[in-house]
Design a protein that fits this description.
Elements (H helix, E strand, L loop, with lengths): L9 E4 L7 H9 L3 E4 L4 E4 L3 H13 L2 E4 L2 H10 L3 H4 L4 E4 L2 H9 L5 E3 L4 H5 L7 H4 L3 E7 L5 H8 L3 E11 L5 H9 L5 E4 L2 H10 L5 H5 L2 E4 L2 H10 L6 E2 L5 H13 L3
Parallel strand pairs: 1-2, 1-9, 4-5, 4-7, 5-6, 7-8, 9-10, 10-11
Antiparallel strand pairs: 3-8
Amino acid sequence: MRQAALSNRTILITRPAGQAEKLIHMIEAGGGRVLSLPVIGIEALAGAERERTARALLAEAEVLVFISVNAVRCLIGLIPDAFALCADRSIYAVGGATCRILQEHGFRQVHQAMGIGSEALLDLPGLQADEIAGRAIVIIRGEGGRDLLRERLAVRGARVAYLEVYRRRRPEIDNDRMKKIWSRNSPDAIVISSAEGLQNLIDMTPPEDRATLFDTQLVAISERVSTHALARGFRLTPRVASEASDEGLFAAIKQLFEERQ
C-alpha cells in the first residue's frame, strides 16, 4: 500500500497563536507531524477614542475592504455591533479565509477575488474607476503594511481611509527552543503567511542555524511572499498556495510531498 504523502513529514507552522488549529488538524489527519512556532503576535487595539473614530469611519463608508481574518476579529472586539452598522455596505475580502469569517458573521454578499492578495482584489468589476469614483472606501487592517490598495483605489477616484484595528509584533522566544527546532526536529517544510512573518522567523533563528533555515522548503501564501523569500536567501523555490486559505496551504503541502514519493 502506498504510504500517505505526509507520513513522517514534519511541518513547521508559523501562524499567530490561536489561528492555526484548522491547518494543524488537516496536516495531522493527513499523517504529518506539526511544530507550531508563531512568528507574529496580534495585539487588538482598543480604547474609547479609537472606538469613536472607528464608528465615524464606518458611518461614512460606502465600501468596506477587510484585509485579513484578524481585521474581522479585531473590529468585532472593538465594536461588537459593527456588522449591524455595516449591513448595507459593499463588502470585499482579501483571501478565502477572510471571506468565510465574514460570511459566518452574516454577510452573504462578500466579494472575493479568485487570485491572491490585494492585486487580485483590484481586478474585481466593482472596484473599477467607473464604479468607485467619489465613493468612500474604508480599508480595515492592522497598523502598517503595504499601501498598494489604497493608492490604486485613490487613483481611480475613491476617497480612501484606513481603519486600523490591530498591530503586529514579533514574539519573544527562548533561544534554546529555537535551537532545538533545528538540532532535533528540523522540519521538512515551513508554512509562511506573510513577508513580515518570514523576516521575523529569520531574526528569531540563531545565526548559526540560518544556513539550515535557508535550505528548508517553504510553502508560501502568495507569490509576493515567495519572491521575498528568494530575495532573503532561501535556496529552494517556495511552493505557493493556490488560494490564501487553510485549504490552499494544505493542498500545496500535500502536493509538494506527493511529488517526492
